[in-house]
Amino acid sequence: MKYIISTILLLITINYTNAQTEILKDNGSWFTLTNKVKVSEKFYITNVTQQRRVNFLKNTQAFLLSPSINYQLTKNVSFGVGYMHYTYFTNGVSHASIKKDESRFFQDLVVNSKLEIFKISNRFRFEERVIDVINTSVTPNIIDGSKYVNRFRYRVQATTNLFKLKNEKYILGKLSNEIRIRFAGGGINEPDFDQNNFAALIGYKLLPNSTIWMGYGRYYFKKNAALYISNNILHLNLSYNFDLTKRT
Q1: In terms of C-beta density within 10 A (0-12 exposed, 13-18 middle, 19 or more buried), how is residue 213 classed?
Q2: How far is CA 15 from CA 8, 12, 26, 193, 196, in A?
Q3: How far is CA 55 from CA 61, 159, 216, 219, in A?
Q4: Pick the residue with more confidence: 170 or 186?
Q5: Tens digits of per-residue pLDDT, 17-53?
Q6: I want to staple 123 with a disulfide (CB 3.0 to 4.6 A). Which of 155, 192, 195, 196 is the partner?
Q7: ∠ CA 67-71-72, rounded to 5°
Q8: What angle do CA 238, 240, 244 make, to 5 degrees?
Q9: pLDDT tens, residue by residue, 108-163
Q10: From the centroid of its chain, how far is CA 225?
Q11: Domains along the chain?
Q12: Rounded to a whole number, what is the distance in angstroms from the first to the last CA of the chain?
């Protein structure tokens, strides 16, 4: 239901855009490594490392590193805090003129549930972002200070076993959609659609604590009032988890 609601909100937002809005299309590939380290019955640490490429595999568009610490409040509810360092490179259909960096501080609330054969994960995230500002009035362009903005993100994921293999393992399936809302200035006023990320993936459990995922994604974001970017993505994700509470 929440996936349907977020999709409807996205369509409504797009329909409000001016008829003269320009959409630039790109093709890319995102390579993601996710680690989860369980340090106690309640606390766990995660880290996401991701390289984003455009022109399919040709050029690096962005690189991010995002560690966080999380607390398992109940079986199905957890919350956490974390940091992300994000580097933008000068590649893509609408890129910055020079390389720039961004620091993000975020707070997460994750609520898990089950619906028939699907495991459902809802993640609510609030971000405080400090982004380099490029001075384009001088040549060559330079970084001249930074700006502070906030953003809210809601992601829903549904995973299930698709079918069983002869080795008794399963091919897994995952659908994910995330909508992002940015706010004007440094507060939480004037909410505006920022991005929508959709992904459809198939997975295979390599080891009891490791899974590989591959599939298609569509990354759609608002550059400004008259320009949207649509990026078709090849996803390749590897997760590897550690449980330090089981050490002997």
Answers
A1: buried
A2: 11, 5, 21, 12, 14
A3: 9, 29, 15, 14
A4: 170
A5: 444 577 889 999 999 999 999 999 999 999 999 999 9
A6: 155
A7: 125
A8: 170
A9: 999 999 999 999 999 999 999 999 999 999 999 999 999 999 999 999 999 999 99
A10: 22
A11: 2-242 (2.40.160)
A12: 43
Instruction: Report percent pLDDT > 70 for the chain.
Output: 91
**Which amino acid appears at position 69 of this protein?**
I
The Cα 122–Cα 178 span in angstroms is 10
Residue 76 is classified by DSSP as S
Concatenate the DSSP letters of all residues of 171-194 into one string: EEEEEEEEEEEEEETTTTEEEEEE
Q: Which amino acid is at 24?
A: L
Two tokens, residue 244: 């330090």
Strands annotated E in the chain: 22-38, 43-54, 59-72, 77-88, 100-115, 118-135, 142-164, 170-184, 189-207, 210-224, 227-243
Q: Which of helix, strand or coil describes residue 7?
A: helix
Q: Which residue, chain included where needed, has tokens 């079918």?
A: 163
Q: Is pLDDT at 75 greater than 50 in this prediction?
A: yes
DSSP conformation class of 90: S
* Nearest CA-CA partner of 15 in 176, 193, 230: 193
**Whole-angstrom Cα distance, residue 248 to residue 239?**
23
Report the candidate in 110, 113, 138, 115 with the shortest Cα–Cα distance to residue 125.
110
Write out the two tokens for 160: 């299930």
Closest CA to 151 of 120, 112, 192: 192
Give the tokens for residue 8: 């409807």
